Amino acid sequence: MSKDFKEVEQYRMFTSKSEVHKAINALIGIIKGVEFDGMVSNTELAEITNWCNLHRHLKKKSPFKEIIPTLDEALEDDHLSQEEIQDILWLCNKVVNGDDFEDFYNLVTSSIQQLEGILHGMLADSELSESEIHQLSDWMDENETLKGTYPFDEIDSLLLEVYKDGFISENEKQQLTGFFGSFIDINMSCNINEPEIKALQQKYSIDGICAVNPEISFADKTFCFTGTSTKATRNEIAKIIEEKGGRFNNNVTKKTEYLIVGGDGNPCWAFACYGRKVEKTIKRRKEGQKVVIVHESDFWDETY
Question: Is residue 69 in some structural domain?
Fold first, then answer.
């Protein structure tokens, strides 16, 4: 299922390399995520096909001119064998391990993008299994070098909490689903149900992501913004805040009291570029600074 994205073309001339690298990391993650439970369903196959369709505009460009035909051929019989999976991952890893790739992206950024893809793949069939959770936990153990990086620490902490009693309940699976959905660009999915994810996020309040129904006051408060808004430019948001008696700063500082997270994802962004301010904010929260992370929908609710 192909989707339209606002202003994507104007970004591509500047971030084509970023888009290519993020896409390959996402594909590696998605494939790993969908096979975590030992089988690839038709719904999950559709999610991989969707990845192909979303990137066909790059089909004449390497490495997509090699990867997309390989995926198309593998998916032709509506089945993905282990051998086909290994062939695809081998091809993707050749890109990831190439000199050009390593020069542009460091290992942490690449791994975090793959983690985002893994979460995407795990949720592709709208069902989070115990086997998938165990496989994710194993992946986290194998990638401990990512500790201290957002959102690795937050996911790791929640998994530890879930495993504390040695049993994963249905409520805990739903909590994990809502949390994982916070790190997925749902615009890039043909199956993940956004209303269901949002409903779970409202039901389960989890530290490290946007606050649920936060109380927002403007007078003498300092705000920052990250991402892209669905409704206004950054300057327009700053003006609204200032008109209500607040202050706006483009950077997260010791004085920041609210970080607004834009709700309009963009396929051209590298994950780390989008999450840097959130990562900094969570670090400050862990150090004791009182900062509320606000989804822009809640911000707009307070301004109308």
Answer: yes
Residue that is last in its domain, among 203, 235, 264: 203
Query: Following DSSP, what letter does each residue of 131-176 receive, concatenated?
Result: HHHHHHHHHHHHTGGGTTSTTHHHHHHHHHHHHTTS---HHHHHHH
pLDDT at site 7: 42
**Count of beta carbons in the 10 Å neighbourhood of residue 6:** 11
Burial code (b: 16+ CB inside 10 Å, e: under 16) for 47-73 equals bbbbbbebbeebeeeebbeebbebbee
Domain boundary among 153, 169, 203: 203
Residue 278 structural domain: 222-303
198 and 227 housed in the same domain: no
Q: What is the pLDDT of residues 48-59, one digit of tens each?
A: 999 999 998 888
- For residue 260, the SS3 value is strand
Distance CA 278, CA 112 (A): 14
The reply to whether 61 and 128 lie within a common domain is yes
Is the residue at 27 inside a domain? yes
Domain assignment of residue 208, yes or no = no
Q: How far is CA 283 from the centre of its chain?
A: 19
Distance CA 235, CA 248 (A): 9
| Claim to verify: residue 171 and residue 270 sit in the same structural domain | no
pLDDT averaged per 10 residues in sequence order, the chain, 304 residues: 44 57 91 91 94 88 91 94 94 79 65 93 92 95 82 81 88 91 86 89 66 86 90 94 96 93 58 63 81 88 87
pLDDT of residue 271: 39
At 82, list the tokens. 């282990």
